[in-house]
Protein backbone atom coordinates (compact mmCIF):
# COMPACT_ATOMS: atom_id res chain seq x y z
CA UNK A 1 0.00 0.00 0.00
CA UNK A 2 1.18 3.52 -0.68
CA UNK A 3 1.87 4.91 2.76
CA UNK A 4 4.22 7.03 4.78
CA UNK A 5 6.44 5.03 7.11
CA UNK A 6 6.15 5.76 10.81
CA UNK A 7 3.40 8.38 10.66
CA UNK A 8 -0.03 9.06 9.25
CA UNK A 9 -0.10 11.63 6.48
CA UNK A 10 -3.03 13.79 5.54
CA UNK A 11 -5.35 11.87 3.26
CA UNK A 12 -8.88 11.58 1.92
CA UNK A 13 -11.50 12.30 4.58
CA UNK A 14 -14.59 14.36 5.32
CA UNK A 15 -13.20 16.00 8.44
CA UNK A 16 -13.10 19.46 6.86
CA UNK A 17 -16.48 19.25 5.14
CA UNK A 18 -19.08 21.94 5.57
CA UNK A 19 -20.93 21.55 8.84
CA UNK A 20 -18.46 19.05 10.30
CA UNK A 21 -18.42 19.38 14.12
CA UNK A 22 -15.24 20.88 15.52
CA UNK A 23 -14.87 18.03 18.01
CA UNK A 24 -14.72 15.56 15.13
CA UNK A 25 -12.16 17.69 13.29
CA UNK A 26 -10.01 17.77 16.41
CA UNK A 27 -10.36 14.01 16.89
CA UNK A 28 -9.22 13.43 13.30
CA UNK A 29 -6.34 15.86 13.77
CA UNK A 30 -5.18 13.67 16.65
CA UNK A 31 -4.71 10.81 14.18
CA UNK A 32 -2.60 12.85 11.78
CA UNK A 33 1.12 13.39 12.21
CA UNK A 34 1.50 10.73 14.95
CA UNK A 35 5.02 9.27 15.00
CA UNK A 36 5.21 5.53 15.56
CA UNK A 37 7.57 2.61 15.01
CA UNK A 38 9.31 2.65 11.62
CA UNK A 39 7.96 -0.81 10.76
CA UNK A 40 4.42 0.61 10.64
CA UNK A 41 3.07 2.11 7.43
CA UNK A 42 -0.05 4.23 7.81
CA UNK A 43 -2.29 5.97 5.34
CA UNK A 44 -5.76 7.47 5.27
CA UNK A 45 -8.38 5.58 3.30
CA UNK A 46 -12.01 6.33 2.37
CA UNK A 47 -14.22 5.38 5.33
CA UNK A 48 -17.25 3.10 5.04
CA UNK A 49 -20.56 4.86 4.58
CA UNK A 50 -23.66 4.90 6.78
CA UNK A 51 -21.96 3.67 9.95
CA UNK A 52 -22.26 7.11 11.51
CA UNK A 53 -22.93 10.71 10.43
CA UNK A 54 -19.18 11.39 10.49
CA UNK A 55 -16.35 8.90 9.98
CA UNK A 56 -12.65 8.76 9.25
CA UNK A 57 -10.58 5.68 8.41
CA UNK A 58 -6.96 4.70 8.20
CA UNK A 59 -5.18 1.56 7.11
CA UNK A 60 -1.91 0.22 8.42
CA UNK A 61 0.59 -2.52 7.75
CA UNK A 62 3.58 -3.85 9.63
CA UNK A 63 6.36 -4.26 7.07
CA UNK A 64 9.82 -5.72 7.74
CA UNK A 65 12.35 -6.28 4.96
CA UNK A 66 9.62 -5.60 2.38
CA UNK A 67 7.44 -8.35 3.85
CA UNK A 68 4.00 -7.46 5.22
CA UNK A 69 3.52 -9.26 8.54
CA UNK A 70 0.14 -7.85 9.61
CA UNK A 71 -2.38 -5.30 8.43
CA UNK A 72 -5.61 -3.67 9.51
CA UNK A 73 -8.02 -0.76 9.45
CA UNK A 74 -9.05 1.65 12.20
CA UNK A 75 -12.25 3.68 11.79
CA UNK A 76 -13.27 6.65 13.90
CA UNK A 77 -17.04 7.18 14.11
CA UNK A 78 -18.86 10.22 15.48
CA UNK A 79 -22.58 10.73 16.08
CA UNK A 80 -23.30 14.14 17.67
CA UNK A 81 -26.63 12.80 18.95
CA UNK A 82 -24.87 10.05 20.85
CA UNK A 83 -25.42 6.31 20.66
CA UNK A 84 -26.75 4.22 23.53
CA UNK A 85 -24.58 1.20 22.70
CA UNK A 86 -21.49 3.39 22.52
CA UNK A 87 -22.12 5.22 25.76
CA UNK A 88 -21.10 8.47 24.07
CA UNK A 89 -20.65 10.19 20.73
CA UNK A 90 -17.44 8.51 19.51
CA UNK A 91 -16.62 4.91 18.62
CA UNK A 92 -13.50 3.19 17.25
CA UNK A 93 -13.86 0.13 15.02
CA UNK A 94 -11.03 -2.09 13.82
CA UNK A 95 -10.21 -5.10 11.68
CA UNK A 96 -6.74 -6.66 12.09
CA UNK A 97 -5.37 -9.83 10.54
CA UNK A 98 -2.12 -11.73 10.10
CA UNK A 99 -0.80 -15.14 9.10
CA UNK A 100 0.49 -17.30 11.94
CA UNK A 101 3.26 -19.82 12.39
CA UNK A 102 2.09 -23.41 13.17
CA UNK A 103 3.08 -23.29 16.85
CA UNK A 104 0.93 -20.23 17.41
CA UNK A 105 -1.97 -21.46 15.28
CA UNK A 106 -2.22 -24.68 17.32
CA UNK A 107 -2.53 -22.93 20.68
CA UNK A 108 -6.06 -23.64 22.00
CA UNK A 109 -6.05 -20.35 23.91
CA UNK A 110 -5.18 -18.30 20.83
CA UNK A 111 -8.55 -16.44 20.56
CA UNK A 112 -8.47 -15.43 24.23
CA UNK A 113 -4.84 -14.36 24.00
CA UNK A 114 -5.45 -12.28 20.86
CA UNK A 115 -8.35 -10.50 22.53
CA UNK A 116 -6.09 -9.79 25.52
CA UNK A 117 -3.60 -8.22 23.14
CA UNK A 118 -6.19 -5.58 22.25
CA UNK A 119 -7.34 -4.81 25.79
CA UNK A 120 -3.78 -5.11 27.08
CA UNK A 121 -2.50 -2.60 24.52
CA UNK A 122 -5.12 -0.05 25.58
CA UNK A 123 -4.47 -0.63 29.26
CA UNK A 124 -0.67 -0.59 28.88
CA UNK A 125 -0.94 2.82 27.22
CA UNK A 126 -3.33 3.88 30.01
CA UNK A 127 -5.95 4.75 27.41
CA UNK A 128 -9.43 4.97 28.99
CA UNK A 129 -12.08 3.09 27.03
CA UNK A 130 -15.50 1.53 27.47
CA UNK A 131 -18.02 -0.91 25.96
CA UNK A 132 -15.50 -3.15 24.16
CA UNK A 133 -16.89 -5.87 21.89
CA UNK A 134 -15.62 -8.04 19.08
CA UNK A 135 -14.66 -11.41 17.67
CA UNK A 136 -11.45 -13.35 17.10
CA UNK A 137 -11.51 -15.76 14.16
CA UNK A 138 -8.93 -18.42 13.33
CA UNK A 139 -9.09 -19.79 9.77
CA UNK A 140 -6.90 -22.62 8.46
CA UNK A 141 -6.18 -23.31 4.80
CA UNK A 142 -5.03 -26.61 3.28
CA UNK A 143 -3.96 -26.79 -0.35
CA UNK A 144 -4.72 -29.47 -2.96
CA UNK A 145 -4.18 -30.19 -6.65
CA UNK A 146 -1.95 -27.64 -8.29
CA UNK A 147 -1.42 -25.94 -4.91
CA UNK A 148 -0.55 -29.06 -2.93
CA UNK A 149 3.11 -28.04 -2.55
CA UNK A 150 2.09 -25.15 -0.33
CA UNK A 151 2.32 -25.59 3.41
CA UNK A 152 -0.95 -25.31 5.37
CA UNK A 153 -1.51 -21.83 6.72
CA UNK A 154 -3.56 -20.22 9.47
CA UNK A 155 -4.85 -16.66 9.51
CA UNK A 156 -6.07 -14.81 12.58
CA UNK A 157 -8.61 -12.00 12.36
CA UNK A 158 -9.65 -9.59 15.10
CA UNK A 159 -12.80 -7.53 14.64
CA UNK A 160 -13.44 -5.16 17.52
CA UNK A 161 -14.89 -1.85 18.60
CA UNK A 162 -14.65 0.27 21.73
CA UNK A 163 -15.58 3.75 22.93
CA UNK A 164 -12.97 6.33 23.94
CA UNK A 165 -13.93 7.84 27.29
CA UNK A 166 -12.83 10.88 29.21
CA UNK A 167 -9.44 10.59 30.88
CA UNK A 168 -8.97 11.38 34.52
CA UNK A 169 -7.57 14.78 35.32
CA UNK A 170 -9.87 16.76 33.07
CA UNK A 171 -10.88 16.09 29.46
CA UNK A 172 -10.08 18.31 26.54
CA UNK A 173 -13.23 20.14 25.56
CA UNK A 174 -14.37 22.15 22.58
CA UNK A 175 -17.70 23.91 22.80
CA UNK A 176 -18.56 21.92 25.94
CA UNK A 177 -18.09 18.48 24.29
CA UNK A 178 -15.27 16.06 25.06
CA UNK A 179 -12.60 15.41 22.41
CA UNK A 180 -11.09 11.90 22.73
CA UNK A 181 -7.33 11.41 22.79
CA UNK A 182 -7.28 9.66 19.44
CA UNK A 183 -3.49 9.82 19.20
CA UNK A 184 -3.19 7.58 22.27
CA UNK A 185 -5.79 5.15 20.89
CA UNK A 186 -3.88 5.01 17.59
CA UNK A 187 -0.63 4.26 19.41
CA UNK A 188 -2.28 1.41 21.35
CA UNK A 189 -3.81 0.03 18.16
CA UNK A 190 -0.41 0.02 16.46
CA UNK A 191 1.00 -1.83 19.48
CA UNK A 192 -1.62 -4.50 18.77
CA UNK A 193 -0.57 -4.67 15.12
CA UNK A 194 3.08 -5.11 16.06
CA UNK A 195 2.26 -7.80 18.60
CA UNK A 196 0.14 -9.86 16.22
CA UNK A 197 2.96 -9.48 13.66
CA UNK A 198 5.37 -11.03 16.17
CA UNK A 199 7.63 -8.01 16.63
CA UNK A 200 9.39 -7.57 19.97
CA UNK A 201 7.95 -4.84 22.21
CA UNK A 202 9.39 -1.42 21.62
CA UNK A 203 8.64 1.97 23.12
CA UNK A 204 5.93 2.31 25.70
CA UNK A 205 4.74 0.35 28.70
CA UNK A 206 4.05 -3.36 28.28
CA UNK A 207 2.51 -4.31 31.63
CA UNK A 208 -0.44 -6.63 31.44
CA UNK A 209 0.20 -7.73 27.85
CA UNK A 210 0.06 -11.50 27.30
CA UNK A 211 2.42 -12.84 24.65
CA UNK A 212 2.75 -15.93 22.48
CA UNK A 213 5.94 -17.08 20.71
CA UNK A 214 6.95 -14.59 18.05
CA UNK A 215 5.68 -15.36 14.58
CA UNK A 216 8.94 -14.28 12.98
CA UNK A 217 12.26 -12.88 14.08
CA UNK A 218 12.98 -10.13 11.51
CA UNK A 219 16.60 -9.82 12.72
CA UNK A 220 17.40 -13.43 11.87
CA UNK A 221 16.66 -13.18 8.19
SSE blueprint and pairings:
Elements: E1 4-5, H1 22-29, E2 40-45, E3 54-64, E4 67-83, E5 88-100, H2 102-105, H3 110-124, E6 129-141, E7 153-164, E8 173-174, E9 177-178, H4 182-197
Antiparallel strand pairs: 1-2, 2-3, 3-4, 4-5, 5-7, 6-7, 8-9
Q: State the end-to-end CA separation.
A: 23 Å
Strand order of the largest sheet: 1-2-3-4-5-7-6
How many DSSP E strands?
A: 9
Structural class: alpha+beta
Helix fraction, binned, reads 10-25%
Count up the helices.
Answer: 4
Give the mean pLDDT: 79
Strand content: 35-45%
Pattern of helices and strands: EHEEEEHHEEEEH
- The value of Rg in angstroms is 18 Å
Overview of the molecule:
The protein has four helices and nine strands; from the N terminus they run E-H-E-E-E-E-H-H-E-E-E-E-H. Helix content is 19%, strand content 35%. It has 221 residues and is of the alpha+beta class. A hairpin with a 2-residue loop joins strand 8 (173-174) and strand 9 (177-178).
